[in-house]
Design goal:
With about 400 residues, the protein is mainly alpha-helical. Helix content is about 75%, strand content about 0%. It is a multi-pass membrane protein.
């Protein structure tokens, strides 16, 4: 299976790179290509990639991908970034995230009839956002810097903020082998490891007789990530929160490290993201999506996208002076991104009650979100373009 998966990934990667320039100007999306590629090649259609939820490759890939993404996400939101402009991201995170989670859980319980614990678990999985699927908004200079900063900081932090909620709810529903007390110790130890290791390495690098050459400086940050990963595996610390804490610590204590690592880290994270999205697509079965998800499931998926976050951010932004156009863009661009993909894989492997229903509902929301948001980002970004000067 591994050679077939590698070949499929290489072909899709080549296609994705070749269409990337056009995709940046149109409604095409590399993420959609990998998602649909995995779906078509998976067990439900062509069965070229006979991927099963219990395959070790699924768990390993999910772990590595989420670790790298949380590490690079953390490096986008050092304390200096938060101090520079924290009011709007703070509202989106402290009010918008819990409200989105609550509204989604209410929809899941009353529309789908799921138990409260499973409803809140699915809501926590779907709460994080990912600006990669709205790159035309976050990456365009014509879009106001305030809006780009809001979406960047929010999406960089909400992955890590939602993760403890997902882990606790999985433990409560019996999806992990850890009791709540043990889980709390793992989370606390992970945060300690994530802060301590970068500070020690940064301190060593600043000694007069220890200095990395400019060409190898990105590898210094890679070594921090690998050390954190290895120590967490040995000690049992939560490696995901350790990765997130390590990224924030590096960005805060050594901004130069972040700058040197940025391009390399983004490429590695993007590769792992796309591989996980390919596997995620291969695990989605058409039979369940189109035959076993009821009309209420489709209504829930639509409302989770067009109602939950927009309503939550509308409430969160009350009293601010954010222009209506920027506010509407922020309310709409809450794409369910890579963190939700991996959290969905964790739910699928947990074996809790309603596992298949939860996974396929999560998958449906993510698929619809990727299609909706990655096909409208360019259109919305164009609304912020200055009008062309009149012809002489």
């Amino acid at each position: 299976m591994v050679p077939i998966l590698t070949f499929a990934f290489a072909v899709l990667l080549l296609l994705g790179v070749l269409i990337s320039e056009r995709a940046s100007r149109t409604v095409l999306s590399t993420a959609v290509l990998f998602l649909l590629g995995g779906f078509v090649l998976g067990r439900g259609v062509l069965d070229v990639i006979p991927m099963e939820p219990g395959d070790p490759a699924v768990g390993i890939l999910a772990q590595l991908a989420l670790f790298s993404v949380l590490f690079t996400d953390g490096m986008k939101v050092g304390l200096s970034d938060l101090r520079r402009a924290w009011r709007l991201p703070g509202r989106a995170l402290l009010f918008g995230l819990p409200l989105t989670l609550l509204i989604t859980a209410l929809l899941a319980h009353y529309l789908l009839g799921l138990p409260w614990l499973q409803s809140f678990l699915m809501a926590a999985v779907l709460a994080p956002t990912d600006p990669v699927f709205a790159a035309a908004v976050v990456g365009r200079t014509e879009v106001p810097g305030r809006l780009r900063h809001l979406l960047n900081v929010e999406s960089g932090l909400n992955d890590g903020l939602a993760l403890p909620i997902v882990l606790v709810l999985l433990a409560v529903t019996g999806g992990t082998n850890s009791a709540i007390g043990v889980l709390a110790e793992e989370i606390g130890l992970g945060i300690v490891v994530g802060i301590a290791i970068p500070l020690i390495v940064i301190g060593l690098e600043r000694l007069p007789f220890l200095k990395a050459t400019k060409g190898l400086q990105p590898l210094l940050t890679v070594s921090i990530g690998l050390l954190v990963l290895a120590i967490c595996q040995v000690t049992g610390a939560n490696l995901f929160l350790a990765a997130f804490a390590a990224g924030i610590t590096v960005a805060t204590a050594a901004p130069g490290f972040r700058k040197e690592f940025e391009q390399f880290g983004e490429l590695v994270s993007e590769l792992l993201k796309l591989a996980a999205i390919l596997v995620f697509g291969a695990l989605i079965t058409p039979t369940f999506l189109f035959n076993e998800i009821t009309w209420s499931g489709w209504v829930f998926a639509a409302l989770a996208i067009v109602a939950a976050r927009p309503l939550a951010l509308f409430i969160s932004f009350l009293g601010t002076r954010l222009p209506a156009k920027e506010q509407l863009a922020a309310m709409w661009f809450g794409p369910k991104g890579f963190a939700s993909v991996v959290y969905g894989l964790l739910v699928l492997q947990s074996g809790i009650s309603y596992t298949n229903e939860l996974f396929h509902l999560i998958a449906l929301v993510i698929v619809l979100s990727i299609l909706a948001h990655s096909s409208t980002d360019v259109l919305v970004a164009k609304q912020f373009q200055a009008p062309a000067p009149p012809a002489p």
